[in-house]
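Cross-posted from the bioinformatics board.
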Amino acid sequence: MFRSKITVTLRPSILDPQGKAVELGMHSLGYQSVAHVRIGKYIEMDVDAKDRQMAEKITREVCAKLLANPVMEDFAYSVEAAGREE
Amino acid sequence: MAKARFGIIVFPGSNCDHDAHYVAGAVMDQNARLIWHKEGSLGTLDVVILPGGFSYGDYLRCGAIARFSPIMKDVVRFANNGGIVLGICNGFQVLTEAGLLPGALLRNQSLKFICRDVTLRVENSETLFTNAASKGSLLTIPIAHGDGNYFTDPDTLASLEANGQIVFRYCDREGRITEEANPNGALSNIAGIVNTEGNILGMMPHPERASDAALGKTDGARIFESIVRSVAHRVPSIHIPV
């Protein structure tokens, strides 16, 4: 069993009004040093695969097909052995 | 004249399906039926409507999960065979997620859900969806969305423009395309586009909410009238300059 940890972020060219609003909130709190806040998604999932290579392949595919929309988002992931044996 | 056969797809979370069904059936006097998303086949239809709402609770991204509903396979087949497909609001989002229309709908720039009338300028009146309107005419139709900010890359935008695929733009009451008249930050004030073949329209505004005189507004009926006319006469599809 493997555990995949995935982040999905808006592509750099896309304005993130939510990040902007949160950044303003931080400035209101007094943290003027904070800038370029970007908000994304974090997804964890178990993958039942025979080896790491297969688990990475499945993770990459679900990211490309469903978890991220390539028009507006990028994704990154890590895959670790979880539970019993690798 | 044979009636046009409309099928309105019902996803879990659709909430404008009955409105679209009512307008196609009762107002336009055509054949209309609701089709549950788990069905495998559309049957015989002339027009498919993907209605507004919040399919699958807008989880992950608007329209991202609905595109994998069983019925979508047949919708894609229908669309690729030249069938007329109208995606309204969430339906537009589903069409972009399914790759039937280019681009994506981002969060409104204001981050607010906006529910109000907007003015649209008809940019192309030679489509299957706008042949009952004239180019440059203005339509008052409501919007109701949180994610209607149309986005695409510069190359795609240029080709949408060159091919006349931009069908509606947000404008002010005088028909001027201004930043103030843009409710959601959409690129180039885009409110609705068609595919290159001209048989698939996605639009954020809700024509089905402005088609019954009893509700006080009927500009949305131009779109349904155009579709009915297109089915009856098979008017030439979108004009693509060579």
